[in-house]
Design brief:
The complex is a heterodimer of chains A (115) and B (109). Chain A has 115 residues and is mainly β. Chain A has strands spanning 5-7, 10-13, 19-24, 31-38, 42-50, 53-57, 64-68, 74-78, 87-94, 105-106, 110-114. In chain A, strands 2, 4, 5, 6, 9, 10 and 11 form a seven-stranded mixed sheet that branches. Chain A has a four-stranded antiparallel sheet with strand order 1-3-8-7, with no helix packed on it. Classes of the chains: A mainly beta (115), B mainly beta (109).
């Protein structure tokens, strides 16, 4: 079974631009969560989507948004990029939402650098 | 809001020694997860602990959960170099999941 895939793997953007990251979950998984990882703040929860609906949201500004499609693939968008948005963005999928006791499987991440 | 604290944040130890990583959490957590992350890589799931007193073991790693003390431990027995990595615990419930800051573990020959 193929794992969680994320595209692109690496991305360089300049301040003020916007970016869209993509995540394809494991086949059959309906929940997709996004995390931001930085050396200073560690791993922080961005949001979770389940069956095309956002179920939970972390403490991030409105510049960070996401969506999920009917095939469970998910995208996250960051508008008006700031230098502090430079991070590794990880996507995780699970069979059902995080409110249930199912394991999350993480993708390889997208390394975003904002200059 | 759930807060998760790991300690130590950095640990250097010799091969063959035993050590424990601690994960304290501030409020009720439905479950507790442990992950491993190698440099430049994603997170690999190690253990899921769902109930008080739960203990799971895989090779030289053993994780336990004490929900009354709001504490989980990851014990390393007779460490080997291949276990060098950053270890994260994660707790939470239906409202979301929170990671600890991670323990950067270096095992020296």
């Amino acid at each position: 079974k193929a794992g969680v895939t994320q595209t692109p793997r690496y991305l360089i953007k300049t301040r003020g631009q916007q970016v869209t990251l993509s995540c394809s979950p494991i086949s059959g998984h309906r929940s997709v969560s996004w995390y931001q990882q930085t050396p200073g703040q560690g791993l922080q929860f961005l949001f979770e989507y389940f069956s095309e609906t956002q179920r939970n949201k972390g403490n991030f500004p409105g510049r960070f948004s996401g969506r999920q499609f009917s095939n469970s693939r998910s995208e996250m968008n960051v508008s008006t990029l700031e230098l502090g948005d430079s991070a590794l963005y990880l996507c995780a999928s699970s069979l059902v939402g995080t409110g249930n006791f199912y394991e999350q499987y993480f993708g390889p991440g997208t390394r975003l650098t904002v200059t | 809001e759930l807060k998760v604290e790991q300690n130590p944040l950095f640990l250097s130890m010799q091969e063959g020694k035993n050590y424990t990583i601690y994960c304290n959490y501030s409020t009720t957590s439905d479950r507790l997860y442990w992950y491993r992350q190698d440099p430049g890589k994603s997170l690999e799931s190690l253990f899921v602990l769902l109930s008080n007193g739960a203990v799971k073991q895989e090779g030289r790693l053993m994780a336990s959960l004490d929900t009354k003390a709001r504490l989980s431990t990851l014990h390393i027995t007779a460490a080997v170099h291949d276990l060098s990595a950053t270890y994260f615990c994660k707790g939470g419930g239906a409202d979301g999941l929170t990671f600890g800051k991670g323990t950067h573990l270096i095992i020296q020959p």
